[in-house]
């Protein structure tokens, strides 16, 4: 019987298999950041162990880093300790680190791919749930816990139970105003936050094949929000073109050999998935969340749902609780929800294409009065590219704030936070209670919707902008 993409990559990495035990997998790339690595290094020290493959291990600082005044000492003592600890650990164990201020610094899931470290057919792990991002390259990429981080540091292997496989086929063509973010939000709304539990999801079909690498990363990034172990997309010409010439991509004869292998990384025609889902891409529209988990979303043109409309009692209860926290009421048109803050960034939507998309919408327009818009590139490289294209100027001319690279307002581990009761339209991936700051209210959106929302002050798509929005900006 044929095998799925996930099964092929899995089988290629099994170091040891025994009846009734998890498979022991070889790990090709181990990414580290300041939040989940300290105890792992402590564990090594305690047991007198070394990092087995420093050449396959790389660290960056992202969660606790400020996005302003990065040359000043870190004010918050917790963040400062986190960063100092990572620096000390990397120096002691010989791990390559890209600290704040370094040109390769940035959100771990932006840095790996842009360096060409994330490659098709590899196993990638990181003590971070959004490691699923790397699956966009046809890699098997898992978020792991701190004790597993220690295991990988010490052995470069990891015992893992073989996951089930799910295919999500996206047919048709996405309408022009529908982005990868809308697609993944719609998928999660359909299958639920537990819909992917125990599975590696393979996204496939014509609408997926057409996506750029950036867009594929956006989709795979949020696999974890559907509860999946990982998300994957079969590598193709788009993948190879993105990788060719990057720092760590193979070159010369190695490149040709790599591409030849990568081309075999496709699900066989006769392979059987444990579960299959079909989505009609052509029927999708811009999508936003109204609740406090990523599955609580709806098309922007819809209204806040009535909790009573949910058949499932736990979903009904969750909706009631979410509306209370979000300060929304059933029947309220989503377009009428006003925001205080707009955040463009994160490992979901902080890449160059995302910034280009947002810039093209605010260009010649002004961020609405009373709204603050933060634009935070996912990495320093993304920032440099954006500056080279003049995007930073476009943002600042529109009244947005152009910040230094990092996780920023994706989660409240650094100074970029919502105040209690404040509401944001955010291109990040989680809208949990307090995620962007205690009492903060988050609507997950695409960069395009974020930018249009910043201009109009309420949830909106670029189609809602008129020429007069642009004229106001010129007069102002
Ligand atoms: C801090 C880290 C462990 C966490 C994760 O695992 O995803 C963070 O990146 C997040 O997005 O919530
Ligand atoms: S940008 Fe957000 S989701 Fe991504 S790693 Fe940072 S905190 Fe996690």
UniProtKB/TrEMBL annotation:
Signal peptide: none annotated. Binds 1 [4Fe-4S] cluster per subunit. Transmembrane segments: none annotated. InterPro entries: 3-IsopropMal_deHydase_lsu (IPR004430), Acnase/IPM_dHydase_lsu_aba_1/3 (IPR015931), Acoase/IPM_deHydtase_lsu_aba (IPR001030), Aconitase_4Fe-4S_BS (IPR018136), Aconitase_4Fe-4S_dom (IPR036008), IPM_dehydratase_rel_enz (IPR050067), IPMI_cat (IPR033941). Keywords: 4Fe-4S, Amino-acid biosynthesis, Branched-chain amino acid biosynthesis, Iron, Iron-sulfur, Leucine biosynthesis, Lyase, Metal-binding. Gene3D superfamilies: Aconitase, domain 3. Its cofactor is [4Fe-4S] cluster. Residues 7-457 form the Aconitase/3-isopropylmalate dehydratase large subunit alpha/beta/alpha domain. Its EC number is 4.2.1.33. Pfam families: Aconitase. Residues 418-442 are annotated as: Disordered. [4Fe-4S] cluster binds at residues 347, 407, 410. SUPFAM superfamilies: Aconitase iron-sulfur domain. Heterodimer of LeuC and LeuD. Belongs to the aconitase/IPM isomerase family. LeuC type 1 subfamily. HAMAP family: LeuC_type1. Catalyzes the isomerization between 2-isopropylmalate and 3-isopropylmalate, via the formation of 2-isopropylmaleate. PANTHER family: 3-ISOPROPYLMALATE DEHYDRATASE, HOMOACONITASE, MITOCHONDRIAL-RELATED. This is 3-isopropylmalate dehydratase large subunit. It comes from Streptomyces fildesensis.
């Amino acid at each position: 019987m044929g095998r799925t993409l996930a099964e092929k990559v899995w089988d290629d990495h099994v170091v040891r298999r025994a009846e009734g035990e998890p498979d022991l997998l070889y790990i090709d790339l181990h990414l580290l950041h300041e939040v989940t690595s300290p105890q792992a290094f402590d564990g090594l020290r305690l047991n007198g162990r070394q990092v087995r493959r420093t050449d396959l291990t790389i660290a960056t600082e992202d969660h606790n880093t400020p996005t302003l005044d990065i040359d000043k000492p870190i004010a918050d003592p917790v963040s400062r300790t986190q960063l100092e600890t990572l620096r000390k650990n990397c120096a002691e164990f010989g791990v390559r680190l890209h600290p704040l201020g370094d040109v390769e610094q940035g959100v771990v899931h932006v840095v790996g791919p842009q360096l060409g470290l994330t490659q098709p057919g590899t196993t990638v792990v990181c003590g971070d749930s959004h490691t699923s991002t790397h699956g966009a390259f046809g890699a098997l990429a898992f978020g792991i816990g701190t004790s597993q981080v220690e295991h990988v540091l010490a052995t470069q292997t990891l015992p893992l139970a073989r996951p089930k496989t799910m295919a999500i086929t996206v047919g048709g063509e996405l309408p022009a105003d529908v982005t990868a973010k809308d697609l993944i939000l719609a998928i999660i709304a359909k299958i639920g936050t537990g819909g992917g539990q125990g599975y590696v999801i393979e996204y496939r079909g014509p609408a997926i094949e057409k996506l750029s690498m950036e867009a594929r990363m956006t989709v795979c990034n949020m696999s974890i929000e559907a509860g999946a172990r990982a998300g994957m997309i079969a590598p193709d010409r788009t993948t190879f073109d993105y990788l060719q010439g990057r720092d760590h991509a193979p070159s010369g004869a190695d490149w040709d050999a790599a591409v030849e292998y990568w081309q075999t990384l496709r699900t066989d025609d006769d392979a059987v998935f444990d579960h299959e889902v079909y989505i009609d891409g052509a029927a999708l529209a811009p999508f936003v969340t109204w609740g406090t988990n990523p599955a609580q979303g709806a098309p922007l043109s819809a209204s806040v749902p009535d909790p009573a409309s949910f058949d499932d009692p736990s979903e009904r209860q969750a909706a009631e609780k979410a509306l209370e926290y979000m300060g929304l009421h059933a029947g309220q048109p989503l377009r009428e929800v006003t925001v205080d803050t707009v955040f463009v960034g994160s490992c979901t939507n902080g890449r160059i294409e995302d910034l280009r998309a947002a810039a093209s919408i605010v260009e010649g327009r002004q961020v609405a009065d009373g709204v603050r818009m933060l634009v935070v590139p996912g990495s320093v490289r993304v920032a440099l590219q954006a500056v080279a294209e003049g995007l930073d100027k476009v943002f600042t001319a529109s009244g947005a704030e152009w910040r230094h690279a990092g996780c920023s307002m994706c989660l409240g581990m650094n100074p970029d936070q919502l105040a209690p009761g404040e509401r944001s339209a955010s291109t990040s991936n989680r809208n949990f209670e307090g995620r962007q700051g205690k009492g903060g209210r988050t609507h997950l959106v695409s960069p395009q919707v974020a930018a249009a929302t910043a201009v109009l002050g309420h949830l909106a798509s670029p189609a809602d902008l008129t020429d007069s929005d642009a004229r106001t900006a010129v007069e102002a």
